Amino acid sequence: MKRLYISVLMVVMVTVTAMAQQKREFRGAWIQCVNGQFQGMATDAMQRTLAYQLDELQKDGANAIIFQVRPECDALYESRLEPWSRFLTGVQGRAPYPYWDPLKWMVDECHKRGMELHAWINPYRAKTKGTTELATNHVAIKHPERVFRYDGQYIMNPGLAENREYICNVVADIVRRYDIDGLHIDDYFYPYPAAGETIPDENLFRSSSNGIGNIADWRRYNVNLFMKQMHDTIASIKPWVKFGVSPFGIYRNKSVDPNGSDTRGLQNYDDLYADVLLWVNNGWVDYCVPQIYWQIGHPTADYETLIGWWSRNASARPLFIGEDVERTVKYPDVKNSASHQMPAKMALHAKHPNVSGTVLWYAKAAVDNIGNYGTMLRNVYWKTPALQPLMPFIDHKAPKKVRKLKPVWTSDGYMLFWTAPKGQGWQNKAARYVIYRFNKKEKTDISNPSKIVAITSDTYYKLPYNDGKTVCVYVVTALDRLQNESKEKKVKVKL
Q: pLDDT 10s digit of each residue in the chain, 495 long?
């Protein structure tokens, strides 16, 4: 194992020499609950587990967490609309004891660590296969006519306007009450095809087709209406909250669409009725994370083929790549059997300029450092801090410069203090600050992420004082909620 790690690391170092560290990059990880990793866990144990994961991911360089809070029309947060999740307490409808709100706790803990928190919901899934009992206030119990059974699951019928309204009300409640940075949905729209199963919506189609002659087109129409409504709902409440989607990794195969990818797998457009490119090109989502979970060289869904296809076709909104950590380290590099595929995949990210981030499936795999994945993130790929990619279509105006920047001796040591810039409203107020350090004769180039020493919501920073003989320059900039960056303010100090 040690020999393999050394071999992989050597490959990594060679590969990275040509790869510059990015100052802006989405570095996310999915923390799921539906796998039961927290089910029935005591409050203090779950908090310790989550805190440990966040600490390790912070060391790895992550700057965003996508946290699953609604796996089956239930809640890992305090909700008046839906029951507590069984994936939290073991019994749907049972509140945690001692009482706590996991979503609020995660927002606070992520923000303390300089990370964004994106609340992840499964919009249509009302019951997973393993759930045997639903709470009395669950939507499938209160409104059984609004769900259908499919392959052991309950699915909220996307063809019903009242379901779209219901889901958007749930989302509006989350966005209003929690200081989240993003609202995230995954690839569960109409259900994944199952052998011997038929979606029972033909009667609804005949009565509510809206003049659409083809049931597949009608299903896509229903999902399109939902995506537009979701986007508008979020934007009307808190425009800075990003709406993201992580679709299945294949949009369409070339065999059915000349513009599709050279693949031969299940398709978003045809099998899940999800027209992802329409949402991206119409601006109904703020970022897109296709789940490209396969390996380079996969016979029907080659990773290299797919990352190139998404880069060419889905760049109207920021594009991040969903990475399967376990599969990446399981398969050898097709050009170097001494290495797994992480270096080659990261090189492909760098090769495609439209790719501006990565989301890890799943967080715990990186935390457990499978195949030294986490080690290579923190030592190589995500070694320097990164700000979030810009989203000028939401807001492009940076806040003003910080004020009154000066070093001060205090009882706690040598501190750098500043005052927040003047600004009204979410577009102009400073939310965080970036602190850079330069040597005395160095050009103060804030485009270089290796010079970042901290990203903080505080208006102070403790300086590493030594003997007062080292002259350096500190630069502080202000960030707004979307991390537009102000002009710099600098001060010379002796450390």
A: 445 545 555 545 544 444 679 999 999 999 999 999 999 999 999 999 999 999 999 999 999 999 999 999 999 999 999 999 999 999 999 999 999 999 999 999 999 999 999 999 999 999 999 999 999 999 999 999 999 999 999 999 999 999 999 999 999 999 999 999 999 999 999 999 999 999 999 999 999 999 999 999 999 999 999 999 999 999 999 999 999 999 999 999 999 999 999 999 999 999 999 999 999 999 999 999 999 999 999 999 999 999 999 999 999 999 999 999 999 999 999 999 999 999 999 999 999 999 999 999 999 999 999 999 999 999 999 999 999 999 999 999 999 999 999 999 999 999 999 999 999 899 999 999 999 999 998 999 999 999 999 999 999 999 999 999 999 999 999 999 999 999 999 999 999
Do 377 and 434 share a domain, yes or no?
no
Q: Do 355 and 409 belong to one domain? A: no
- Tell me the pTM: 0.96
Domain boundary among 350, 381, 412: 381
Q: Of 346, 381, 416, at which residue does a domain stop?
A: 381
Q: Give the ranges where 131-192 is alpha helix by DSSP (H).
A: 139-142, 161-177
Convert 270-291 to b/e letters by CB count within 10 Å (16 or more is b): bbbbbbbbebbeeebbbbbbbb
Report the C-alpha gap between 160 and 141 in whole angstroms. Answer: 17
Residues 85 and 161 in one domain: yes
In this structure, is residue 446 part of a structural domain?
yes
Number of domains in the chain: 2
49, 109 contact by CB (below 8 A)? no
Domain that holds residue 447: 403-494
In a domain, 392, yes or no: no
The closest alpha carbon to 339, from 307, 369, 293, 372, belongs to 372
